[in-house]
Amino acid sequence: MRVNEILDSIKKGQNAAEPILVVDDEENILQIVSEMLSSQNYEIYLAPTVMEASRLIKDKEMSIVLTDLVLPDGSGVDVMLYAQKNQPDAKILLMTGKPTIQNAISVLKKGAFDYLVKPFDMQTLLSTVKRAVDQLKLERENVRLNEIMSFYAISEAMGSEIDPDRLLNLILDTAVREFTADFASLHLATTDGELRLEKTVCKDINISAALNQFSQDLAWEVYNRNKPIIVNEIDAYARSGLRAIKSSICQPLMAKGKTIGTLSLVRTRDIHQFTTGQLTTLSLFAAKAALSLENSRLYKDLEDSYFDTVEALASAIEARDKSTAGHTDRVWQITLGIARTANWEANRIKELKMGALLHDIGKIGVPDAILNKPGPLTPEEQAVMKSHPELGAHIIREVAFLKPALPYILYHHERFDGSGYPHGLKGDTIPIQGRLLAVVDTYDAITNDRPYRKGRTIAEAIEEIKANSGTQFDPQIVKAFLDTMKSLELLP
Fold this sequence. Notes:
By secondary structure, the protein is an alpha/beta fold. It folds into three domains: 3-142, Rossmann fold (3-Layer(aba) Sandwich); 161-295, 2-Layer Sandwich (Beta-Lactamase); 321-487, Hypothetical protein af1432. It is built from 19 helices and twelve strands. It has helices at 3-15, 27-37, 50-59, 76-86, 101-109, 122-160, 164-178, 208-225, 233-240, 276-320, 327-341, 346-358, 368-371, 379-385, 388-396, 406-411, 432-447, 458-467, 475-487; strands spanning 18-23, 42-47, 64-68, 70-71, 74-75, 91-96, 114-117, 183-189, 195-202, 229-232, 247-255, 258-267. The strands form three sheets. A five-stranded parallel sheet has the order 2-1-3-6-7, with helices on both faces. Strand 8 (183-189) and strand 9 form a beta hairpin. The radius of gyration is 35 Å and the shape is rod-shaped. The two termini are 58 Å apart.
């Protein structure tokens, strides 16, 4: 979100012709007032009845509504109340030929900005309207300045968020809050030109399915036209048959000159319609949202390519140690189950995958004669084999993307009682990554063949894990491991 864009919109708003609706059943009054105001920067609309005034208020955005108190099909108060409902920012001026203190107090209490007594001169009319316009501009500027601060904070949050799910939640939750909506949906374009619903927020679950369909149709229209749209209550009913929709708005999401999706908002409460001013604000919000989504996608693509590299490294490790084929993937799947049982967050699970796949990368530096020796290792050979955690840590230490894998690589052979390697750490001084991987790595080693022995059964491996709980393994990790094995239906 560029602050200059909002400031530019404020300046444009200050210079634009202010639309004024004049309501009176006397044609000569309409003409006189219109002529008096035409010398200023105003766009004048005329209406002789409450019905015609209501239609114009519904279809046009008005800054000022100047209405006679007595009309053939109602009163100026009816016009005022309708305007307050549909255009709450508009300033209402009442005209009357029979002024009383009671009338004045009554209309001011109902929310009128001021009132004029007929007949009035040009100077009185112009000064009263100018005061109303100046007040309206001041309120707009305050709103816009508040938007600058609000959207700056939102932009910072969106710009720093790269997780796709959290970013989608942030965009929709912010849109619902900032634009007083009851439903929001975000559609993204697929590579084959389709629109896929990514996420919705709905305050009324009873009509969520119907609103989803309505927003899908609206999204297609906006996506194909590449233009935003405001849909009023009558048009929404014609499109969907839903009386619950009071107003809706849909904005294309543009990134790098390309439409990547749409953002739709719906109001179901009986409040005012979305306005063209809000459409402008939504377009600025959508521009930042689209850029953040595109950056998140690019980051995800880059992350995927990194993980492809990690998996290639893991495959290279296993290609040298033929007895451990599939070991890293099996370790990853079981540790993933434990992490999910423990409700680890997404970023932590990504680090876990990296660590599980790379925990034996140091074996690249172990000679084949030791790595694939069919019999027991000599003390010297054991020392070389035990160096693989530190070798692995040395290999990846300078690669920033791979650093989260370090504790998995370096500490998965430490023992809970302090008798492990390479540092002889004990208890909770062993990072949890190492304590977790120690259990699963050992389980997989027991249950699969090695050059010097045959693999044992799952039941035997489980018993050995249990027997070494509190000595070789952290008891809490053992419990989580057993719970996960049960949930994966791997326990005998």
